[in-house]
Design a protein that fits this description.
This protein is of the alpha/beta class and 165 residues long. The protein has 3 helices and 8 strands, in the order H-E-E-E-E-E-E-E-E-H-H.
């Protein structure tokens, strides 16, 4: 039979291993650390409006996550939002004429960057810039435009009748 001291030492070691495993799991799920990330390459894209896009948002092709947004900055010359993205290294065959759009998961979900591959024979590489972009559709702007168009007076119908008199 093991002595009491050895049993307590083993229980302590198992407890420390469990706490360490929970810490690794917590950091892995939260995405707050850079360790355990797959290698990749960086690309950039400029957008007129990014909506609620945030760093660590997904970058997807046809719904499959292939990377993440690493940073969002404002270009002081053009006043456009410059989105930096890390693309997984195994996705090294994305054509360089691909387009990027900011879409929403569901009706009110999180924003993500959707890449649409095109047909070029050359591919994106580290430091590339995606030229063709589509900004986020902001629900509040669309509702405002819809309401503004409803309440616009119908001036074109009254004008021809007034000119004949």
């Amino acid at each position: 039979m093991l002595s009491r001291r050895i049993v307590e030492t083993l229980v302590g070691l198992l407890l420390l291993a469990a706490v360490a495993a929970l810490l690794v799991l917590a950091f892995r799920v939260s995405g707050l650390t850079n360790f355990m990330r797959s290698p990749g390459y960086m690309v950039k894209a400029s957008f007129e409006d990014i909506g609620q896009l945030k760093p660590r948002a997904a970058v997807r092709i046809d719904g499959v996550t292939i990377g993440e947004v690493t940073a969002i900055n404002l270009d002081p010359a053009t006043f456009k939002a410059v989105v930096s993205m890390r693309i997984d290294a195994n996705m090294d065959h994305i054509p360089d004429d691909s387009s990027a759009a900011i879409l929403t998961s569901g009706l009110l979900g999180d924003n993500y960057v959707a890449l649409t591959p095109m047909y070029s024979e050359t591919f994106l590489k580290n430091g590339s810039t995606i030229q063709y972009t589509h900004s986020a559709m902001i629900l509040e702007k669309l509702i405002g435009q819809f309401l503004f168009n409803i309440h616009k007076p119908a001036a074109s119908a009254a004008t021809p009748a007034a000119s004949k008199k």
